[in-house]
Amino acid sequence: MKNRIEGCRQAALDILKPSRKQFEYALDLHRDALVWDAYGFSPSGISDYSRIEKMKNENASADELTIAKEEEGALKCLFSNEVARIYREIWDASGVDCIFQNAGEEGNSVERMILRLARFTAVTDTQKDLYMRAVFPRDVEKAKTLNKKSLFMTTNGIPLPVSFRNENDLLFYIHVFFEFGVRMMHLTYNRRNLIGDGCAEKSDAGLSDFGKKVIAEMNRVGVIPDVAHCGQRTSLEAAIESKLPVVASHSVCHSLVDHCRAKKDEVIKAIAKSGGYVGIVILNDMLGGTGDINALLNHIDYVAENFGTDYIAIGSDACFNMVKTKPLQIIKRKNYESFWPAEWGKYRVKIDPDYNSLAWTNWPIFTLGMHMRGYSDEDIRKILGLNIMRVCKQTMSASEYVTMIRE
To answer: What is the mean pLDDT of residues 274-289?
Structure first.
């Protein structure tokens, strides 16, 4: 694992070519800063496929196999000392303090969201020597001072019940999932739902009337609206409708790459006006251009130069897999919510995973890149985590629900 981490780091250094002084200064800054991934996944990987192969031989369903695969990736660190050791090695190399963790399955199913949320709740609750459970911004700050990691939970959808009679029934689970520890929710995934159009919908019809009520309830409860997978119009209207910050937690700039997930300037402007931020991904197939660390820095530069450094974060939309895993062969139809148009891969750059300048463990090198491009220490700290902290604090402090439960 060390060889792979070092290979990825060297790949980025070969591109940036820093001086020793620049390198050491940036690493010191990174260690001191609060580093918060605006949307990502804690280290993951399957070291043993025997359980899954056994299930396949017993004719397990596609859903059973998918759930088992995710459990292996998320929970293996609890049952294997070797995986736990590598897990910590990856965390330490990244210098990341907190991740806005993808802890809810794509779509609106309450039951399916609970499955993924339970896994990452178990990780934080049982790995107390590594983690401090974080449900408020102050918890993230405290974990940093204790040299521990934290996960802040987010779901890839608004939890909506299958059976309902009125709008209150539909809105009910927003505060329930807040009580579970969820602090950010996607308004849509790629497709259309009751709230609005996702980024894969060609109609781009925007936010629904019900969607406006969802945003009002999120504002009341203290949950951040995330438009990362929303269509352009839905994103724009959500940012205008919300009284509190709206974010695109893991996205890119449409002016630099014509990708469905990219946000146009008018959307970024509205997000900034709401007080939110755009989290730039570290995925080469979304960044376009050279598909390396310079492509990431170009998107950061674009937001900084056109909208300001108060409105940028890095939302990796990635993790660092502990081991190279073979794909899980499951024959099934595509999930409706997860529809990915084939043309979205047109910007993909083939990169050796052992020599990837955008590897999740390269967060210190992202800091180095910003330092080399002339960003002030203050602005780098904002981009690394303080912008996210500001949005979380503003959202929670304005929450009627938080005030109510504290009283």
So the answer is: 95
Q: Give the Cα separation of 59 and 44 in Å (integer).
A: 26
In the chain, what's the furthest Cα-to-Cα distance? 64
Contact indicator for 64, 55 with CB cutoff of 8 Å: yes
CATH class of 2-171+251-260+275-379: alpha beta
Which pTM value belongs to this model? 0.94
Let me know: does 70 contact 122? Beta carbons within 8 Å. no
Rounded to the nearest 10 degrees, what angle do helices 2-16 and 363-372 cross at?
10
All structural domains of the chain with their residue ranges: 2-171+251-260+275-379
Q: What is the dihedral of CA 189, 381, 392, 397, to 10 degrees?
A: -160
Describe the crossing of helices 167-180 and 209-221 by its angle, rounded to 10 degrees. 30
Specify whether the backbone of 356 is left (phi greater than 0), alpha (psi in -120 to 50) or beta.
beta
Spatial distance between the Cα atoms of 397 and 24, rounded to a whole number of angstroms = 37
Is residue 223 within 8 A of residue 244, CB to CB? The reply is no
pLDDT digits (tens, 9 = 90+) for 13-54: 999 999 999 999 999 999 999 999 999 999 876 656 677 788
